[in-house]
Design a protein that fits this description.
The chain has 301 residues and is α/β, with parallel strands linked by helices. The protein has 2 domains: 177 residues, FAD/NAD(P)-binding domain (3-Layer(bba) Sandwich); 110 residues, 3-Layer(bba) Sandwich (FAD/NAD(P)-binding domain), CATH 3.50.50. It has 7 helices and 17 strands. Strand 13 and strand 14 form a beta hairpin. The N and C termini lie close together (10 Å). It binds flavin-adenine dinucleotide. Flavin-adenine dinucleotide binds next to helix 1, strand 2 and helix 7.
């Protein structure tokens, strides 16, 4: 039985694993990939990547260390987790079984896709999912936000601070009666297209325009950056029957990354901790690992 199994190889999981190794815990990291969402970076004409805070030095260092330690990682997908005497049992897609006294769940959250022509082709080439990471790059450039909820309204408000024109393409109508919704309706550089559905992303080497339709009316909006800001889908299903989730399906954690189930800890985008950023995931992963270590000191291992 391992002391600790970390599930997820993004910044939160990698950091948790490295901390556990430093503490000489008998640890295994199980993940579909190493790097998680840090494997995606936005490319834009005339924009240097150093302008983005993405923690890549730390993530790359931790990833190469874990890659090197064969015994410390297993590339696979966890399909089930259940409680057993003295710990937890983890089953993977390839039929492997592992046991550990503690778990750190760092499985992240998946962005929702539009599923329209051009989306895959231009992904990360002018089209992106993370306004919170890239909005400040769009100084005096026209941008579009796709989405109807709070995330889209937040992205619109942030882009409106720098962008010369922001188009909010909101498929669902009647969602703007909130403090943020009312505020963006009053901004002179924001155009709101309610009830429009995106049908295509067009471009050449980069995304250049968004095609949106409402009934018979079709509009093609030329922009330099497009953000898909639909709600994130936390990958919490594997522990949904063991720990408490919030109304959006994120794992509830306290300030020390403890879930409602003793012995299970969580970190990063899969939790209810604000905000979805690499440096935050790194910090949360470190905390979760230290808390798991404290727990093991108490229960003995
Ligand atoms: C397109 C894009 C660009 C971004 N750019 C930036 C940026 O520039 N700066 C910034 O600070 N933030 C950025 N972000 C946000 C940032 O990437 C995330 O906040 C961060 O990666 C979250 O880390 P995480 O470890 O919690 O989750 P993730 O990075 O999502 O990693 C989750 C890990 O869990 C694994 N996993 C999931 N389910 C299972 C399972 N069942 N079994 C095994 N493994 C599993 C995945 O394979 C992955 O390894 C961006 C996000 C996106 C979508």
């Amino acid at each position: 039985m391992y002391d600790l199994i970390v599930i997820g190889g993004g910044p939160a999981g990698l950091t948790a694993a490295i901390y556990a190794i430093r503490k000489r815990l008998d640890m295994l990291l199980i993940a579909r990939d190493l790097g998680g969402k840090t494997n995606y970076r936005l490319a834009l004409e005339g924009v240097e990547t150093y302008q983005v805070i993405d923690g890549r030095e730390v993530v790359n260092k931790f990833r190469s260390e874990i890659e090197y330690l064969d015994f410390a990682h297993h590339l696979d997908s966890v399909v089930a987790v259940r409680e057993i005497e003295g710990g937890f049992h983890v089953e993977t897609e390839t039929g492997k079984h592992f046991e550990a006294r503690t778990l750190i769940v760092a499985t992240g959250a998946a962005p929702q896709k539009l599923k329209v022509p051009g989306e895959s082709r231009f992904m990360m080439r002018g089209l992106c999912y993370s306004a919170i990471s890239f909005a400040p790059l769009f100084l005096e450039r026209p941008t579009a936000v796709i989405g109807s909820g709070k995330l889209a309204h937040r992205a619109t408000a942030e882009l409106a601070r720098v962008s010369n024109q922001v188009y909010l393409i909101a498929p669902e109508e009647g969602q703007l009666d909130t403090p943020l919704g009312r505020r963006i309706q009053g901004l002179s550089n924001v155009t709101i297209l309610e009830g429009y559905r995106v049908t295509e992303i067009k471009g050449d080497t980069y995304a250049r325009s968004v095609v949106a339709r409402k009934g018979d009316e079709e509009r093609e909006i030329a922009v330099d950056g497009t953000f898909i800001e639909l709600d994130l889908l936390p990958r919490s299903q594997i522990v949904a029957s063991l720990v408490e989730l919030d109304e959006q399906g994120r794992i509830k954690v306290d300030a020390r990354n403890r879930t409602s189930k003793p012995g299970i800890f969580a970190a990063g985008d899969v939790t209810n901790v604000w905000a979805e950023q690499v440096l935050i995931a790194i910090g949360e992963g470190a905390k979760a690992s230290l808390t798991a270590y404290e727990y093991l000191l108490e229960v003995g291992s």
